[in-house]
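Collaborator request, handled under Task 6.
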Amino acid sequence: MSQYAKDSEPEATRRDASDAESSRASRGWWDRNADDYQREHGAFLGDDRFVWGPEGLDEADAALLGPTAELKGRRILEIGAGAAQCSRWLAAQGALPVALDLSHRQLQHALRIAGDDSDGTLDLVEADAGALPFRDGSFDLACSAYGALPFVADPVQVLREVRRVLRPGGRFVFSVTHPIRWAFPDEPGPEGLSVAASYFDRTPYVEQDENGRAEYVEHHRTVGDRVRDVVAAGFRLVDLVEPEWPDWNTQEWGGWSPLRGHLIPGTAIFVCTADSA
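C-alpha cells returned to the collaborator:
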C-alpha cells in the first residue's frame, strides 16, 4: 500500500474500483511518486539488478526464468518495469528485453540510469498491461516483479495478454504481495503482527481525494484466486515461490521488515508456462 504522502493526505478506504479507474489512478500515482520511489529504493534495487521483492531474492541466484546461460538471445517482456533495473540485468546476460510500464516518469528514470551507456539492447515502451502493443507470439519469456498485477481490477485480462504475446512453451514469472499480508496491518513493527481484517475480503484498498477520486488503488486476490486466474488465462502453474527473509537484509520497505519477514511471507512468486493448446 502507498507510502508517499503528498501535501494533502488522501483518505484511505476499502471500496470497489473499476479497471479504468484503477489504471488511471496507477498512472497518476506512479508519475507523481516515481522520484521518491527511486530515491528511497534505488540503492537496494541497483541499476542493473533483478530483484523479485523486498526480501531481496535475486534472479541471478533463483533462476526462475530458467538457467542464466540460456537467456542469451531470448526476447523477454518485463511488465511494470519501473526504471527497468530488471531488464537492464537481462540485457547484460545477452537477452533482448523490452521494458513496459504505464508510468511515463518511471520510464524517464530508466533513461536517466542508462545515460550515455545505452547500446540499443533495451527497448522502453509506455503502455497498459491490459492491452499489450505487440503481435502474438512475440516473446520467449515474460516477467513482472511487483508490476501491474497488484494494481489491476481484471488480472485475467493482463494474464491473457501476456499469454497471447508469448510463444508456445514460453514462461511467465510474476511476483506480488503475498495474499496473506492483506489480513494484517501494513506496518513493519509489532503492530503489524496481529490479524486485523478478513483474508477473504476482496474489496480493493483505495486512497482517494476529497472528491472521492481514486489516487491509488490496490487489489486483493487470495492464493486460490491467483491460481485460478493463471489457469483461466491459459497458463500452467509450475511453481509458487514464497521467499524467506534472509539474515543479511536489515532494511524496512513499507510494511516489509526483518521482524515480519521471519514470521510470515511477504511475497508470492508465480512461475507459469504457456503450454501449447
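The cover message to the collaborator said: "The helical segments are 19-45, 59-62, 85-92, 104-114, 155-165, 223-232, 258-261. The longest helix spans residues 19-45. Please let us know whether this matches your experimental observations."
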